């Protein structure tokens, strides 16, 4: 009989073909800690739900949440957080079941595949893969979470799943080749190791995005050897990022002295043109054109400032601010080697001129150069139509 998450997904038409038995067999509740915070909506309302507590957020709420399409946050601030009130940054969770199902569908599993999962979290996804007949190795960067997942998997009868503690960006050297690499944390730079460890023809499925936009797009790369992988963006999803790939440079002021040399220009677009809802493609697509740049919007009573911070990619940092308000002309000020505002504006115009295409008309190619440098090359419509910038990282 179909129950719990399987029923929820089936009712929503979101149960991927071939996955019913796995979702029926693996109980999400078996992978949840006694306390978690339910991410109830985009405003970040996150009540603590405690199985051992009485009252509104006690046992019944816990049982209900386990079978709902909710992100359940199981760790804040890399484990530094204590207490009942939510922490600052969610750093581990049981992902929302519909997102788990969509990603598993993209993985194109037939049974028997060797799968490397990056981002073990609770162990729930690893159990689903094992229940579907895959040989699963999973890596979690946080030792305490990895240990908990190991226990969850063993208790639920999935002793065959190998749980490793370590940086999943390195993959599992010596463990491959894998038929699939399944990444359940947001990626900004696809590591070369994943291409090396996937057999030719195999898939890497990951939430990929840039520092410019919060949400990512599911990206399905087909691997053609250790030096080349390519594939489309399919659908949007918001994921916690790989630990080493979080945006960490937002800045909303110019350092002393920078204003003296700031360049002034007048924007020819409005702030509303380049900001959208959570899954609006505009910021994602701008990010494909504007590498290594973190935006920060600051709302004032009568104006909005959009700060752009460009990381030092060899010739120094760049900062820009575009100010928009009632009763005065918008103005952009910028300093540093990059023309960040110009880059954003050009990206917007290119996208608008093309008819504002959806993000799934874009895709990504990852190339590993002979010296180990890895290039992330976004494209439009086809891999041979690369967008101008290439995002680089060394492995
Ligand atoms: C959204 S959770 C994954 C949910 C998980 N698949 C599940 O079924 O519960 C993301 C996980 O990725 C882990 N993570 C972040 N960076 C990592 C890295 N570099 N290597 C391995 N795991 C990482 C986090 O600690 C977190 O547990």
Features:
9 helices; binds S-adenosylmethionine; 10-stranded mixed beta sheet; 5-stranded antiparallel beta sheet; 395 residues; 2 domains; alpha+beta; Rossmann fold; single chain; Double Stranded RNA Binding Domain; 19 strands
Briefly, what is this?
The protein has about 400 residues and is α+β, with helices and mostly antiparallel strands.
Ligand species: S-adenosylmethionine
Low-confidence stretches: none
Give the beta-strand count.
Answer: 19
Strands ordered across the widest β-sheet: 7-6-5-8-9-10-11-17-18-19
Gap between N and C termini: 47 Å
CATH class type of the largest domain: Alpha Beta
Outline the structure in words.
The protein has helices at 4-11, 20-25, 59-66, 97-106, 124-131, 143-155, 192-196, 281-289, 340-353; strands spanning 35-39, 48-50, 71-76, 90-94, 114-118, 135-140, 162-165, 178-183, 198-208, 216-223, 228-237, 263-265, 293-299, 303-310, 318-325, 328-335, 362-368, 373-380, 391-394. By secondary structure, the chain is an alpha+beta fold. A hairpin with a 4-residue loop joins strand 10 and strand 11 (228-237). It starts with a helix and ends with a strand. The structure holds S-adenosylmethionine. S-adenosylmethionine binds next to strand 4, helix 5 and strand 6.
SSE layout:
Layout: H1 4-11, H2 20-25, E1 35-39, E2 48-50, H3 59-66, E3 71-76, E4 90-94, H4 97-106, E5 114-118, H5 124-131, E6 135-140, H6 143-155, E7 162-165, E8 178-183, H7 192-196, E9 198-208, E10 216-223, E11 228-237, E12 263-265, H8 281-289, E13 293-299, E14 303-310, E15 318-325, E16 328-335, H9 340-353, E17 362-368, E18 373-380, E19 391-394
Parallel strand pairs: 5-6, 5-8, 6-7, 8-9
Antiparallel strand pairs: 1-2, 1-3, 3-4, 9-10, 10-11, 11-17, 12-16, 13-14, 14-15, 15-16, 17-18, 18-19
Helix pairs in contact: 8-9
This protein binds S-adenosylmethionine.
């Amino acid at each position: 009989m179909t129950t719990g998450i399987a029923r929820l997904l089936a009712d929503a038409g979101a149960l991927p073909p071939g996955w019913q038995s796995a979702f029926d067999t693996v109980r999400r509740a078996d992978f949840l800690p006694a306390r978690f915070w339910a991410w109830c909506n985009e405003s970040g309302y996150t009540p603590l739900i405690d199985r051992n507590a009485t009252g509104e957020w006690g046992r019944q709420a816990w049982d209900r949440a386990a079978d709902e399409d909710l992100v359940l946050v199981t760790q804040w601030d890399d484990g530094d957080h204590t207490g009942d009130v939510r922490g600052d940054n969610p750093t581990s969770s049981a992902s929302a079941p519909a997102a788990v199902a969509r990603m598993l569908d993209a993985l194109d599993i037939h049974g028997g595949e060797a799968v490397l999962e990056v981002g073990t979290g609770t162990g729930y996804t690893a159990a689903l893969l094992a229940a579907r007949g895959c040989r699963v190795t999973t890596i979690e960067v946080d030792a305490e979470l990895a240990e908990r997942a190991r226990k969850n998997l063993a208790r639920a009868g999935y002793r065959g799943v190998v749980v490793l503690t370590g940086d999943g960006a390195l993959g599992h050297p010596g463990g491959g080749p894998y038929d699939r690499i399944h990444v359940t944390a947001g990626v900004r730079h696809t590591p070369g190791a994943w291409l090396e460890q996937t057999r030719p023809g195999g898939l890497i499925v990951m939430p990929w995005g840039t520092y410019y936009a919060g949400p990512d797009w599911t990206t399905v790369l087909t691997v053609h050897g250790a030096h080349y992988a390519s594939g489309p963006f399919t659908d949007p999803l918001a994921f916690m990022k790989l630990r080493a790939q979080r945006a960490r440079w937002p800045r909303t002021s110019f350092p002393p002295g920078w204003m003296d040399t700031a360049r002034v220009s007048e924007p020819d677009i409005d702030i509303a043109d380049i900001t959208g809802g959570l899954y609006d493609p505009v910021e994602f697509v701008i990010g494909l054109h504007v590498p290594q740049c973190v935006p920060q919007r600051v709302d004032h009573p009568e104006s909005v400032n959009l700060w752009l911070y460009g990381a030092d990619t060899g010739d120094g940092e760049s900062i820009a601010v575009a100010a928009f308000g009632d009763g005065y002309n918008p103005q952009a000020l910028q300093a540093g080697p990059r023309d960040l505002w110009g880059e954003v504006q050009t990206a917007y115009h290119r996208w608008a001129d093309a008819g504002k295409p959806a993000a799934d008309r874009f895709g990504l190619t990852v190339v590993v150069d002979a010296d180990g440098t890895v290039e992330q090359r976004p494209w439009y419509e086809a891999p041979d139509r690369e967008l101008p910038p290439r995002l680089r990282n060394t492995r």
